[in-house]
Amino acid sequence: MLLRPTLFVNGRMASNDLLKNTKVTLTTRNATDNMPVSKTFDNLKTLDNREIVIEFQVPSLLSNIDVKIECDVKNITEGNPQKFEKSRSFNFENYTNQMQLGEMYTKRLTNGDYVC
Q: How far is CA 66 from CA 28, 39, 53, in A?
């Protein structure tokens, strides 16, 4: 998985050097039992214009990945760190319980005939 954290301060892009104690938690679920499996990656290095590369084992019949990134941002004005977090969920179709993998569509031609 590739993540590219971007920090904005007052609508302007700021340096990722302000991000400290960055960690990512991945939670996967499969279509068979829907049991969550979580793995946390701590102390990730964030660089401007560079992705964070996270390698993890993808379960068979993957149905969902939840990604949560957490970090401390140094507030230069107040001189102390503030905690931030952002989450996003990705769903995947796997057609596990379906007997048919395709769909059929018809189109009516100008002469009145139908084609599949």
A: 6, 11, 16
15-54 residue pLDDT tens:
888 889 999 999 999 888 889 999 999 989 888 888 888 8
User: pTM higher than 0.85 for the full model?
Assistant: no
Distance CA 74, CA 53 (A): 23
Residue 99 lies in a domain: no
Is position 87 within any domain? Answer: yes
Range of the domain at 47: 2-93
Angstrom distances, CA of residue 87 to CA of 24, 49, 61, 78, 99: 10, 20, 22, 26, 34
Number of independent structural domains in the chain: 1
Nearest to 82 by CA among 2, 9, 5, 4: 9
